[in-house]
Design goal:
17% helix; alpha/beta; Metallo-beta-lactamase, Chain A; binds D-malate; single chain; binds manganese (II) ion; 309 residues
Length: 309
Amino acid sequence: MHIRVLGAAAGGGLPQWNANGPYNERARDGDRTCPAQTQSSIAVSADGEQWVLFNASPDIRQQLNQTPALWPQAGQRRHTPIRAVILTNADVDHIAGLLTLRERQGYSLYGSSRVLDVLAGNSVFNVLNPDFVARRPTTLNVPFEPVDEAGKGIGLLVRLFPVPGKVALFLEDESSENFGTTEGDTVGVEIMDPATNKTAYYIPGCAAMPPELADRLNGARLVMFDGTLFSDDEMVKGKESPKTGARMGHMSISGPDGTMAAFELIDVQRKVLIHINNTNPVLAHDSDERAIVERAGWEVAFDGMEIAL
Ligand code: MLT
Ligand code: MN
C-alpha cells in the first residue's frame, strides 16, 4: 500500500491567510525547519496507479500539481488516476476541494450518510455532475471495496467507523449540548490491502479515546491521528480564538486526557500526527514539543510524506 500525505495541516494550513504567530511567520519566511503545510488530505493506492483521496481540501489544486502520481496520464485528453474520494467529515477543510474535482470527470464519492447529506443540502456541490460523480453512502463499520465510477474495484478495502467528534462548524446548533452532533458526523477509516493483509488507520479528527477505539487500534501497524493542537488551550492563550481543542472536537496531544497519554496504553508500530493546526509547536522541527512527541514515538506528518506499507 502506498500512502502519500497531500496536506498535513489542519483547516487554514500553515501559514494561514490571516495568521501571524511564530510558525506562520517562519513558514512565510521560507524557514526550512518550519515548512509550509497545506490542508488535510492523504492519497492511498494499492498498485501505485489507481488512487483514493481521503478528504478533499481547499488546497487540492496545489496538492495535485505537486504530486506527479496524481497527474492525468500522458496521451489522454482527459484522465485522472483518482478513482474515488472518501470523506471523514463535512468540515470545510475536507470538502471544499470537491469543488475543484468537477469538469465532467468520473470518480466515486464516499462518506457516511450524515456527511453525504451535508453535500446534498448544499446546492453548490451540484457542480459534481451525477452523470460522472457517483455518490455512494457507506454503512459504518462494514468494510467495502472502493470502486471507480464504472463500478470496478481498485484493490483496497476500507471501513468507516464512528469516532467521537463534532458536527461541521457551519452546522453547529448552539442550543444543543453537543451542537447537534450525531453518529457518522466524524469517522475514522481503516484501509486494508487484501494483497498484503496490511492495514492503516487514518483518523484526522477525534475528540476522545473511548476503550472500543483503543481496542480497535491496538496492534495496528500504522495510525495517522488527529494532531490538531499540542495543548488544549493554545489558541486561547495565543489570543487566536476563544476555543479550546475540546470545544472544536479535537483531543490535544499533551495532557492527562491527551493523545500521547492515550496511546501509551495502545500498541501501535508507527504513529503519525496529522491535521496539525498552525498554532501547534510540533510544526517547528526545533521546538521542545517536537522533541517531546518524537521521544514518545510519534512522527509528525508533512506535505509529501510517503509511507509504504
Ligand atoms: C476542524 O477540524 O475543527 C475544522 O476543520 C474546523 C473548521 O471547519 O474550520
Ligand atoms: Mn479540520
